[in-house]
Structure formats: structure tokens, C-alpha cells
Amino acid sequence: MSFFWVKAKALGVRQYHVASVLCQRAKVAMSHFEPNEYIRYDLLEKNINIVRKRLNRPLTLSEKIVYGHLDDPANQEVERGETYLRLRPDRVAMQDATAQMAMLQFISSGLPKVAVPSTIHCDHLIEAQLGGEKDLRRAKDINQEVYNFLATAGAKYGVGFWRPGSGIIHQIILENYAYPGVLLIGTDSHTPNGGGLGGICIGVGGADAVDVMAGIPWELKCPKVIGVKLTGSLSGWTSPKDVILKVAGILTVKGGTGAIVEYHGPGVDSISCTGMATICNMGAEIGATTSVFPYNHRMKKYLDKTGRADIAHLADEFKDHLVPDPGCHYDQLIEINLSELKPHINGPFTPDLAHPVAEVGTVAEKEGWPLDIRVGLIGSCTNSSYEDMGRSAAVAKQALAHGLKCKSQFTITPGSEQIRATIERDGYAQILRDVGGIVLANACGPCIGQWDRKDIKKGEKNTIVTSYNRNFTGRNDANPETHAFVTSPEIVTALAIAGTLKFNPETDFLTGKDGKKFKLEAPDADELPRAEFDPGQDTYQHPPKDSSGQRVDVSPTSQRLQLLEPFDKWDGKDLEDLQILIKVKGKCTTDHISAAGPWLKFRGHLDNISNNLLIGAINIENGKANSVRNAVTQEFGPVPDTARYYKKHGIRWVVVGDENYGEGSSREHAALEPRHLGGRAIITKSFARIHETNLKKQGLLPLTFADPADYNKIHPVDKLTIQGLKDFAPGKPLKCVIKHPNGTQETILLNHTFNETQIEWFRAGSALNRMKELQHQ
């Protein structure tokens, strides 16, 4: 037995490619790219039956898929919202910005190969500037070092590599890897997109991905299940995007935290498979663990069209396990009549501020938001399907017929090379160009701040409308005065033609070039191409069968990549006299903690990217961003500089935050950076799920006020001592002594959600440190 498998046994690791010989009822490959990796519906069925018998009740679809992937279904304690589940995901997907740190951590683990099918997707590092081909060439040149690292690391460790230009990770997954009943984790918060094809697809940090790639059971707090019953049917200008915009308005950005959102009901059948993916994708904006739809004929149709009829046939055979049981119970139930749903537009500055399109202009006037739309942007991982492009083109075609073009600037982002090639062939791309659009590269682009915007100056108040998923302050263009609204691609197109938020395409008229008024007809387009998809260029790199000679080089002088050093272990003592680096006021997303945009180029270099730590967070002491008091010098300066000063002088520090701290992206850099610069704890009113887990993985203490009002007792000039760590145990609160400058003290309680395994991470200094400890036992 090899040294690897001796170590693997201690970790509870399953052997590599074990799935390939166990499927008994049918052998159907997970994807065309992994012909020897089979879908295990037989194992899913076996595990579901074990758990159903134990619980003695009907199961939701979410429960079937999650519990169907339990490591030990016969003995695992299962209680929604309470217990931690040990799961065996089917596969891992990583986008290039987060894959750098994930692969650096995997290299540090010392393991020779990934234990489950895994892929890397190059979509985050391509900046929108001049247009698709030119921007792609520029990105390949600028990011050559990073792309080479990811390609060689993928080849070395058995990870498939999708080259730049392939498309956005979630569209690639939908087209090639997602399937009904899959449990997939991805290092991007919009991984839930795959729920549109009936899978449980969950966004995680890179350290979680490393666990799964190492073959270690993955831990997830047993999710609650929110049911959304859909009745009626979509029609007219109302689109799948409006479903999630409506749900976001109901649940808000934290209403889905700790829960899977499960759509069901007769209205589901009126939504295309890619439309369901749109809804699941933006479920990340309500804090949901993920979202999912039951298997139906729309998914079967999509599988057939994307060359996976064999998966559809197998899913038909196991369909009872891919839909909820009759009479199953939801922790919360929302009902939406699709026939009554109106087109929505959400924003600005938060994706849960919902308005009917018919009302947003009036609200904007009242609030002082700019009415003129400077740019309309369609595409992104949320809305870049063939159907999305077709509906937008149907709107544009009507404008062109009356001699009109867009009054606003207009950009189009295809979701994948397959979508780009197919909309070029079928004429949609040309229609969108003719109306004034620029087709960008198959990448994330402006949605994540990769946008070299030239039409405004920073600080200039303006409005943009997008079909994206997030609209946090400064997210798209780094301008805090950009009022970004999210809506469907067809509404974006109509508003870009009209040039104003005051336009309602359902009721308002446009004036054609001939001076005659006309009204846009509701768009109609095929959900899938009538001919087969055009795959476009081949952009996939298979990992070689023999990678023994493959080198992965990281230069010690590189400014883009940096090998990781282990974090220090806990010293066995309480955390005394922690300095408060910043007390954050209000919303603090992962964009505030670790900005994207121009900082993406440093995602593989922990020390360099730490120079953006918390630069977007608002300091309650002075109401400013990136300006905090140095407790030693009493001077105000940038947050990262102050943290580095404390680290140099051996001063440990803490961050105090508000509600839903860390909402947004899955980026683990928002946890790695504070740990790297000497942080020890983050104390808030509440956390977003992924960020809380990421903090635990890196050996930090994410703690919450037992009484949220205690947030007001702490002042930026105070020092904090966290007591009770010697007896650190699940469910047992810690004490926090607040030491005020005048010599007075008060004690408050801090709650946590650590389980035994996570406490071991803290004691070891990080989850990766703990993995290495177990390897040497």
C-alpha cells in the first residue's frame, strides 16, 4: 500500500476513481470529458432509502440529494439547522481567481492527485475594454504566468482546465457537468446556477474545495428548506429573472441564510431549464446555501440538446428520487403566482431592493437617483443563455425596424464559447451589434468589476442597468456613485433603447425615426437553438494520464503567485487585549473586505492582495472608508497599513462588524487576509454562511453577540479579551471583556457555531494545518 493511501486512511479518504466500478444498474458517464466517472443514482437511491426509513417522513428534493450523499447515512445525525453533515460531493469546480489559492493549498497538502473529478475555469481575469477578441488577447498576455500555473497544476494533479475564452464557469458547468441529483461544490458563490438542472450545487471557499479534492468528507450544517411554490405561468415581458427578483424582495439579502430554496409547483413547467438556472444563480443574493428545481421535461430537453440524452434517460429511470415526496415539509413556504408577476428591477446598491419596472422611474425621481441610463449591460453567469440572447435580440430587432438604436451604451457578454458561436451563427449577435451593442469576451467582465470604464469619472453620479446578480456599491466599475440596477436582459435592452428609467415597455411608446410612435411587443424567442449548438473553438485541456514529469513552478520573486506558509497554531491561552482594527458600520460584503476588479490579479499572492483588506468598509468612528485610527500612533491611515503595523509590533487585533457580515462572494481571501495580517477574531451581529466557514477554515474565530445590542457597547478605542478558549466546546458561549480607556470594564457573551472538527482547525491554526497533522498520525 502506498504512503498516500496510508495517509488517506487516517483522513477517512475514499480512493481515487472508486465510483467508476460500482454503478450496477447503468453505466452513464458524468460528462463527455470523464468517460470513466459514472453517475451513482443507485447509491443515491440506497442512501435515500436508509435516511427515509430512519426519519420516517416524506423528504424534500433538497433532502434527498443532500442526504443521498451522506458519508455514513446509517449513523449520521440529521436535524435541519442543527447538526453538521459529513458529505461526499460528486465533483469540484473552481474559477481562476479562487482556483489559484485553492491549488496552492492543495499543493501544500502533499497529496499527489485529486480524489474526485475537478475542473478549473478561466473567466475572472479578462477585463472588458475594447471587445471580445482584443480583450481576450490582452488578458492572455497580462495573465500568462497565472494561466500557466493553473494549466500545469491542473495537469499535475488531475484537474481539467478550461482555457481563457471558454466562458463563465457556471454556464460551462450547466452545459457539461451539472445533472439532476448531482452534489457539486464550486469556489464561486453563484455555483447554485446548477440547481436549474436539478442538482445541489453549493458555493464554498477554496479550503472546502481542497478537503473534497483530498477525498475528505465535506462538512455542511444541515440546511433548512424554504419552499417556493410556483403557480400560473410566465408570459409577456415577465421572465425567470423576475421570480428571483421578487423572492429577493421578500426574503432580503439574509433571509435564505442556512437554507436551501426549493422551487416546486405547477408553475415550474412554464420555465426553461436555463431560466431555472437564472433563478437558482441569484439565490446567492438572499444568502441561501443553494437553490434547486425538481427534474422535469424542460431539463430533459436541455440535456438532450447538450448531447447528454443518456443522462436524461437515466434520470427518467430514477425520477422518483429527483423530485420531492408528496406531503414533505418546508420550514418556510412562499407562494408566487407567475401569471400575476410583473417585470421587476432591483437596486440600487443592494440586490434586494425590489421595484416593479412600472414604478422604478417614479421612485428614482423621489429618491434623487439619476434617470438617464449611461450603460445597459446584458450577459453574466446569471443571464447569458441562448434564450436570454434571443429575447434581447427580439427587442432590439423591433427598435431597428423603426430606425432606432440604443440611446445608452450597450454591452453583451456571451456565457460560453458555445453560446457565442451559436448566437453568431443564428444572427442574434449581429442584431445586438446593429442596435449599438459591443460583444465582449466570454467571461465575467463588468459583472465582477473587470471593466475599464471610460465614459465617466470616478465620483460622478450615474445610472447603469444590468442583467447581472449583484449591485453593491462600486462593484461594477469601482465608482461609489454608480447606481446599478439588476433586471432581465430583455428589460435591460428595452431601457437601453429608451435611455431612461422612466420607460415601461409594457405601456410606454417610443418614437421611430419616421416620427411615428410605436410600442415594443413582448419578446418571444426559442429556449434552445433549432439546429444543434455550435461548440465553437475547443478550449478544454484534459489532464494527462501520466503526470509524473509535470512541473509546477512558482517563482519566489513573482508578484502574482506566492507559495503558502502555514499559519501559527493557537498558543493555548485566551486572547488578551485584542486591539480593534475597525468597527464596521452597516453593510460589509466580501467586496468591502477584499475588493475584486483591479485586485483580481493578486488572488494568487496572499501578501500582495492583503493590501486591499477592508478598504471598502465604513469605519464607524469617522464615517470613512479605508481610514482607521492607529491605537499606538493615534494617526489615521489605511486599514491594511494599520494591520501591518500591528502585526510588525506583535499586536493582535479583532474586527467588529454589523449584520450579515461577509455576504456576497465565496472568496476566501476575505478570510485569508485578516489571518495573514495578524487578525484573531471577527465579532459581528451575524455572518453570511460561506464567509463564516472560510474564517473557521483559516483559524480565525467568527463570533456573534449573544445580545446584538452589545455591538453598541464596543468602541473603536477599546481593547477586547476573549475568555473561555481553554474549554472551547460546541454550543458553549465565550466571554468577552471590554476594556474601556477610562479603566472601566464590562463583560458580554459571544456565541459561535463551531463543532468539534472546527475547534480542531482553530487549535491547529487552520484546517490545512489540521489535515497535515492527521497525515502524520
Description:
The chain has 24 helices and 34 strands. Helix 4 packs across helix 8, helix 14 runs parallel beside helix 17 and helix 21 runs parallel beside helix 22. It is an alpha/beta fold.
Give the assembly state of these chains: single chain
Note poorly predicted spans: 1-24
User: Taking strands numbered 1, 2, ... along the chain, how are they ordered across the largest sheet?
Assistant: 24-29-30-31-34-33-32
Helix content: 25-40%
Note the overall shape.
globular
Let me know the largest β-sheet. Answer: 7 strands, mixed, barrel
The share of residues in extended strands comes to 15-25%
Determine the mean pLDDT: 94
Topology readout:
Elements: H1 3-11, E1 29-31, E2 34-38, H2 41-55, H3 61-67, E3 84-87, E4 91-95, H4 96-109, E5 118-121, H5 132-142, H6 144-157, E6 160-162, H7 169-176, E7 183-186, E8 200-203, H8 206-213, E9 218-221, E10 224-231, H9 240-251, E11 259-264, H10 273-281, E12 290-292, H11 297-305, H12 309-317, E13 332-337, E14 344-346, E15 354-356, H13 357-367, E16 373-378, H14 386-401, E17 409-412, H15 417-425, H16 428-434, E18 437-439, E19 462-466, E20 482-486, H17 489-498, E21 510-511, E22 517-518, E23 540-541, E24 575-583, H18 590-593, H19 606-609, E25 618-619, E26 624-625, E27 628-629, E28 636-637, H20 639-648, E29 653-656, H21 669-676, E30 679-684, H22 689-697, E31 701-705, E32 719-723, E33 734-739, E34 745-751, H23 756-764, H24 767-775
Parallel strand pairs: 4-5, 4-7, 5-6, 7-8, 10-11, 10-13, 11-12, 16-17, 16-19, 17-18, 19-20, 24-29, 29-30, 30-31
Antiparallel strand pairs: 1-2, 3-9, 6-23, 14-15, 21-22, 24-32, 25-26, 27-28, 31-34, 32-33, 33-34
GO molecular function: 4 iron, 4 sulfur cluster binding; aconitate hydratase activity; metal ion binding
Main location: mitochondrion
Catalytic activity: citrate = D-threo-isocitrate
